Amino acid sequence: MSASSPTSTPAGGPRVFQACADWARTDGLVWLYILKAIAAALLALGVAMKLDLPSPRTAMTTVFIVMQPQSGPVFAKSFYRLCGTLVGLVVMLALIGVFAQQPELFIATTSLWVGICTAGAARNRNFRSYGFVLAGYTAALIGIPASQHPDGAFMSAMTRVAEISIGILASGFVSAVVFPQYTGELLRATVRQRFSSFVDYVSAALGGRVERPRIEATNARFVADIVGFEASRSTAVFESPDARMRAGRLARLNTEFMTVSTRFHALHQLMNRLRESGSTVTVDALEPYFREIAPLFDKSGEPVLSAADAVHVAAQLENYRATLPRRVRETRVQLEADLDQQGKNADTRAARLLDFDTATELFYRFVHEMNEYTATYASLAVDTHSREKWVARYEPKTNLVAAGVAGLRAAIVMGLLATFWIASAWPSGANLVLTAAATCALASASPQPARMSSQMAGGTMLASVVGMFLTFGVFPHIDGFPMLCVALAPALAFGVFLTTRPAYMGYGMGYCIFLCFLVGPDNVVQYNPAGYMNDALALVMSMIVTAAAFVVLLPPSAPWLRKRLLANLRGQAVHACRSRWLGARGLAGLRNRFESGARDLMFQLHALAGNDAALRQDTLRWMFATLEIGNAALDLREELAAVKEHAPWRDAAEGTLKATLKTVSALFERPDANRHATALATTRAAIAACQGVLERIVQDNAPRETRHRLQRILSHLHFIRTALIDPQSPFAAYLNQPTDQPRTPPGANHAA
């Protein structure tokens, strides 16, 4: 025992230190956030009381509305809250001035304004939507109580804005000064983790070690990463000059990740189709290239993680890409010789070469896009870089009809409750109406708004019980602001803790916000049990009515919304085939809107599917089909647009190419068996036409660039055709259905 004691004691020290470090990185951050939130709330309350504002509780409530674990979201949310508050203030003063003597018209116009703001909140994303929420909620918060005393409306509005501003400043001050947690640090960790995860996925997929379920799960995670990354990037710019200096590169990194992940998935899917169709000679010719990719992502045998080390990877990819065209041409010559030696007929020989050309074109584009992505990642190692000059941004796509329904629902709920208030003359009717406005707007941004509203109602009921104990059991026995803080802190800590647990976030939000509303002391404290009970009942009733409205009035979880969003997702492929190239960015802008729009809609559909595995799988298949065929259509249009001079070959092939784009877009617009067969037939005709043109220009000794352009066009057409007959795609259901069109034999993946 004595011999082992000296070694056991030192071993225990590192273990304790490691345990403490792990706690500090996990639960420690949660408790730090709880302490910061409580400190900010009490600071806002104290300042508002010191300034003798009429309702200090508003300042404290504001803290729990804007407080976030990281500083960036706090600053962003505060900025948009202040903007929304000022807009709501101006609108409400105008409405009070016009309809001060007509309460019915005032309530109707206020309901309409809240509905418009709720629709705007549903249409926008991240904290921009919060500005719309506050523009509507502030109008109700200021206007409804002030409408009962129009002569004091302006002063009431000014003091309410002052109280909200104090809450915003207190949140920002505590978040930035007390152990600040920066979104920029989270972004750096996310960028590093995503790069290494994607490299691992590429290496495993090219090595044939990835099954279909893992492909779907990985791509679903990538979609969530892309949407979450954009949300974090948009808030990080509020934190520091360093984040603003890299904002363009971070936006570019997200865009390039979307592009390279789409390219790689298209390549991987094509190789799977070639294996299933028995094109082993093509697969064997390409396998050596795939084995060369994984070592390019290493530096001295170690995986590259940091941006500084990525410089080495970018250089290796650039050198590899420079030698690729020559090596591919040599491999193609060898493949032609092998096919001749095997005695393949002309059709089979042409089909295998087309398979090879399509796969190598996708491979070359993947290497190019991966090189761009890696170079942008490497540029983050320095403060300034030429790659910062990037104007493309992630562009979310929210269904306009769904946003309109959310606004209409909010207006209806508010109108019904206001009618009840006027008819009953309930003293707490004002709280009933304005709380409904806030709940409708806040819950509309949630994937499950009815559940969120119900949870908020539960949290408010709990806050009512706790608040009654504090108001009538504790406050009469304490004196001074320090004792008030001691009494409030434990009750507030419980609610903040609930907000840190995703499953109970709605309960925590309702508890924190409305505990402050019910319990937060004013400078002139009134002990009115009847008024307290009426206010608590009004709060809970408004949330229950709102939850019922989400269930009854065109519920967002109903099949109609999924159908609309799925049509929007397919519509991205329609835009890729038809839309004009607007603005100076041209094709780059169109491709960026296509990529980000498809993934944003996928993210919404995935959240809507919940735990339904079948719906999730169906959504992923539509996303894959949209991205694969949409990108191929954009590539096809790019090749055609790049031909500036009058080219006879273009005149011969352009008609069939445009027909292909037209029929493919019609298929995505309204899928059915006939349109699927038509799209296949026109694609087959375009391939045949382009092959005929290619044979003629080869005989005429046309320039190499012309031949290569036609070969690339053929590759894009061939890829579209293989995607349309992929047994894993949503179009597979149409392959065996009777149609009016002649059909290619099942399993054929080339132009016969």
From TrEMBL:
Superkingdom of origin organism: Bacteria
Entry's transmembrane regions: 30-51, 79-99, 105-122, 129-146, 166-184, 400-422, 457-475, 481-498, 505-524, 536-554
Region (Disordered): 732-752
Species lineage: Bacteria, Pseudomonadati, Pseudomonadota, Betaproteobacteria, Burkholderiales
Identification of the protein by name: FUSC family protein
Subcellular location: Cell membrane
Pfam families linked: FUSC
Alphabetically ordered keywords of this record: Cell membrane, Membrane, Transmembrane, Transmembrane helix
PANTHER family xref list: BLR3852 PROTEIN, P-HYDROXYBENZOIC ACID EFFLUX PUMP SUBUNIT-RELATED
Membrane association type: Multi-pass membrane protein
Chief place where the protein resides: membrane
